[in-house]
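Morning!

This is the sequence you dropped in the shared folder:
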Amino acid sequence: MTKKDRRGAGAEFALRHAEKSNDFNHAMSLHELKNLYYLKKEIKEQQRRIAELETLAINCSTKITGLPTGTGISDKIGNYAAQIADLKALLNLNLKKRFYELNRINSYIDGVEEPLIKQIMIYRFECHMSWLQIERAIGGKNRAESLRKKLYRYLNKK
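The structure's back. C-alpha cells below.
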C-alpha cells in the first residue's frame, strides 16, 4: 500500500490496526508485556503525589499578622485542590489502562501451551518477580539465566 493509498484509507486502515491489536491470540512483544510493570510504577507515583498534595492542602492555613502581604494574591488551597483533581483524573485513567492491559496479558498467557513458559510469564509479567525469585519459585535445576533465555526464545519465535 502506497503512502497515497493509506491517506485515502484512513478509517479502514485504523480499523484493521485496531482489530489486530485487540486480538488476544496475536504474539505480544516483550515491550507490550513489560508495559504493565511501568504502568504500575506510574500509578504508585501518582498515588504518592496525591497524598503529598492532600497533606500540603490540610497543613496550609492563612496567617493573620495584621501586616500587608506581598504583591501576589494566591489561593494555595485552591491550587492544591486543582492539582489533586487533575492527578485523580489521571490516576483513574491509568487504573483503567492497567485493568485493560492486565486482561490482555492474562488472555495472552492463557493461550500459551507450554506449562513452563506460562509459569515464567505469570511470575514475570503478572507478579513482577525478579529472575532470581522466579528461579526459586520454579525450583528444580532451572537457573535464572536459562529461564530468561527460554522465555525470550519463545517470544522471539512467535
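Headline: The CA atoms of residues 47 and 91 lie 7 Å apart.

More detail when I'm at my desk.
O.
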